[in-house]
Design a protein that fits this description.
This protein is 8% helix and 45% strand. The protein is mainly β. This is Mitogen-activated protein kinase binding protein 1.
Length: 759
């Protein structure tokens, strides 16, 4: 009997254990959801649309959709409001399209084993996931009847799939050997057309066979008869609508607008006289996006030229000016994507300086009547750093309330407004961007040349990374920023070691000096309560220079104790002025300022070495403790006065990656971290408890800052266009940016400074 009781007890344990595991896993998932629900993404400043395949509009709601990293931005251009769809796989979104009824958005992504995902627009939730591709998805499209989705893989994927998305099955599939950059469904959903490098192909759906057979059937494809244009790159394709439903229109990178008839024969073409990248076809118009900001309109009935639409801003424009005068020799950004809303008669355009315009074109007979409904200008290259106005600070600050600065490899420093309202006068080009400082007269650095090469197909296979590196090396690129405590000076360091000081009152450059041999990686002003006015600069050359702000930034001391790149330097202390620095040599140096006969001098008091690389550091407001973000994903808390480690805890919820940035909030209660696994976390500084998590960037986060009211966390990154040949992680400077505002909310309300907003 005892044996029977033991057996029954073991059986009960075995039956009970799966439910326990399920309950435990459910608890973990619920906890992760609770952490992510404590923050909400308020705004994204940036776009990563490489061409027409990543720009779409819904004529019913007027929403414009485009990707920004692994987030889909749903923009209401009339109200300047954003809604966001998050790709939980953290993979960059490469292409998207609205369903005919506007209720759904389909997206494709990059990376290994990518998925085609369908999202409900109203709730911003995923309703379907289709996974058959292996190496990235180049373009997707809904059929006009809403039943099917076509997805085309990258050139190495070589697969074209037709999905019955509501049943989650592939109904037809085939291989394609050419590089495909565009796809378009016919008006009756009986066929679709793909276009690319020397490639125009018509794919026919046998509805009877696809409906009756449960298995995937071969997709029937027939090449278009290109004739003498067979060697062209067809950068975009659009099937005719309405009375021209039997025609198919293509555009070549050399600047030809072509029409194919119902027999797949190239019937006629016209020369645009400029290089072209994108195409949009409606019942009454054909819009061609071309170089130098040109958009031309044609009639689909006979390809007759109708008009040329207004161009955007010229490169190097002063956005703070109310009057814009462009010289004849001025350059304009190239158009890389266009989409038309026939209900509202809005034409949305994306340009290769990462600007977005929505034009109101109610009367094309007179293009001068075309008005700008919405516009936004973003960084065109990797954003390396950002800076907010110092809290407190003596005297009157020159930065408006609620503003912040960002710097980028595009050689610009930009002043943004969080809420769209600023003490500066509003400008007509952007509600968010208030001022642009150009540190280089060469406007080529403002252009994202890779987007044009992707759209026009001019990049060569296997060489896109190398060419991108060469373009990036020609840019100096601003690497780091710091605002002086009094709010009057802005210090910036670039990748060639040049230190610049700007007067924030008018953004005039007052100092330009070669401070380091290579990248300036960090800058730090001493705090007002130290009684000193110092600026410390540290770089990849392993040196720290201490400058006297009050004496026109004259050199006070040079420190050379580090044996590798210095990743962070900070000042602390009230009675004794201290300097703390950490670097890739796994060392933390603690120094104390002393007055000697020769002047001020920092001497080393403590030296701590760890077994892991130290990537970033921040000092809490009282100046007692320093938090260091490390390669092993840990946060190490050091006592600044004695150099001893006080506490250690994990700074990431994941099991992979490295902590890249840490930032303590102005209240000194919480610390935000960014990890190389693209996740952001907010932790209790003293207990190490994770209070919130968030994601949205598809590449490494290069900077993060709390706003002074602690209501916003601003993050910047190097999100780039996804490509079939991803670059090595060391070339983050090739990437292209977007900024995110995360509005912090939660249940803890520690008075008096840090207030989570309950929504």
């Amino acid at each position: 009997m005892a044996a029977d009781g033991t057996i029954r007890s073991r059986i009960r344990s075995l039956l009970r254990s799966p439910s326990i595991k399920l309950r435990r896993s459910g608890t973990g998932a619920r906890h992760r959801r609770e952490l992510s629900d404590k923050v909400t993404l308020e705004k994204v400043l940036g776009i990563t649309a490489p061409g027409n395949r990543a720009l779409a509009c819904d004529p019913r709601s007027g929403l414009v959709a485009y990707p920004a990293g692994c987030v889909v931005v749903l923009l209401n251009p009339r109200k300047n409001k954003q809604h966001h769809i998050f790709n939980s796989s953290r993979k960059a979104i490469t292409t998207l399209a609205f369903s005919p009824d506007g209720k759904y958005v389909v997206t494709g992504e990059s990376g290994h084993m990518p998925a085609v995902r369908v999202w409900e627009v109203s709730e911003c939730i995923q309703v379907c996931e289709l996974q058959e591709h292996k190496y990235g998805i180049a373009c997707v499209a809904f059929s006009p009847n809403g039943k099917y989705i076509v997805s085309v893989g990258y050139q190495h994927d070589m697969v074209v799939n037709v999905w019955n998305w509501k049943k989650n099955v592939v109904v037809a599939s085939n291989k394609v050997s050419s590089k495909v950059t565009a796809v378009s469904f016919s008006d009756d959903s009986s066929y679709f057309v793909t276009a690319g490098n020397r490639h125009v192909k018509f794919w026919y759906l046998d509805h009877a066979k696809t409906c009756k057979v449960n298995a995937t059937v071969p997709l029937l494809g027939r090449s278009g008869l290109l004739g003498e244009l067979r060697n062209n790159f067809f950068s975009d394709v659009a099937c005719g609508r309405g009375r021209q439903a039997a025609s198919t229109f293509c555009i070549t990178s050399s600047g030809l607008l072509c029409e194919f008839n119902d027999r797949r024969l190239l019937d006629k073409w016209v020369e645009l006289r400029v290089s072209a990248t994108c195409l949009c076809v409606t019942d009454d118009f054909i819009f061609c996006g071309c170089s130098d900001g040109t958009v031309r309109a044609f009639s689909p009935a006979n390809l007759h030229f109708l008009c040329t639409l207004p161009r955007p801003h010229c490169l190097g424009v002063d956005v703070a000016s109310m009057l814009f005068s462009c010289r004849p020799e001025s350059r304009y950004p190239d158009t890389v994507a266009v989409t038309y809303d026939p209900a509202n008669r809005w034409l949305s355009c994306v340009y290769n300086d990462h600007s977005v315009y929505v034009w109101d074109i109610r009367d094309l007979r007179d293009p001068r009547k075309a008005g700008k409904l919405y516009s936004a200008l973003y960084h065109s290259s990797c954003v390396w750093s950002l800076e907010v106005r110092e809290k407190g600070g003596g005297g009157k600050t020159c930065l408006p309330r609620g503003s912040f600065l960002s710097c980028s490899s595009d050689n610009t420093i930009r002043l943004w407004s969080i809420d769209g309202h600023s003490a500066l006068h509003r400008n007509i080009l952007s509600n968010d961007l208030q001022k642009v400082v150009y540190v280089d007269d060469n406007v080529t650095g403002l252009l994202d040349t890779e987007s044009v090469s992707i759209a026009a197909g001019t990049e060569k296979a296997g060489s896109s990374v190398t060419e991108g590196q060469q373009v990036d090396q020609s840019r100096a690129g601003i690497r780091t920023l710091r605002v002086s405590p009094d709010g009057h000076h802005l210090a910036s360091g670039d990748r060639t070691g040049i230190l610049r000081i700007h007067d924030l009152d008018g953004m005039a450059e007052i100092l330009n000096v070669q401070a380091h041999d290579s990248d300036i990686l960090c800058l730090e002003f001493s705090k007002p309560d130290t009684g000193l006015q110092l600026l410390a600069t540290a770089g990849r050359d392993r040196l720290i220079h201490v400058l006297d702000v009050g004496r026109d930034y004259s050199l006070v001391q040079t420190l050379d104790e580090h044996s590798s790149s210095i990743t962070a330097v900070r000042f602390a202390g009230t009675g004794k002025v201290r300097m703390i620095s950490c670097g890739a040599d796994k060392s933390v140096y603690f120094r104390t300022a002393q007055q000697t006969g020769e002047g001020l001098e920092f001497t080393r008091t403590h030296h701590a070495v760890r077994k892991t690389t130290l990537y970033d550091m921040d000092v809490e407001p009282t100046g007692t403790y320093a938090a260091v973000g490390c390669q092993d994903r840990s946060i190490r808390i050091f006592n600044i006065s004695n150099g001893k480690q006080k506490k250690l805890y994990k700074g990431s919820q994941g099991e992979d990656g490295t902590l890249i940035k840490v930032q303590i909030d102005p209240s000194g209660l919480f610390i935000a971290t960014s990890c190389s696994d693209k996740n952001i976390g907010i932790f209790d500084l003293y207990s190490g408890e994770c209070v919130a998590t968030m994601f949205g960037h598809s590449e490494i986060i290069t900077g993060l800052k709390f706003s002074n009211d602690c209501r916003h966390l601003i993050t910047v990154s190097g999100d780039r266009y996804a490509s079939p040949e991803p670059p090595a992680p060391t070339h983050i400077s090739m990437s292209f940016m977007h900024l995110c505002f995360f509005l912090v909310r939660g249940q803890k309300c520690p008075p008096p400074v840090y207030v989570y907003k309950m929504l």
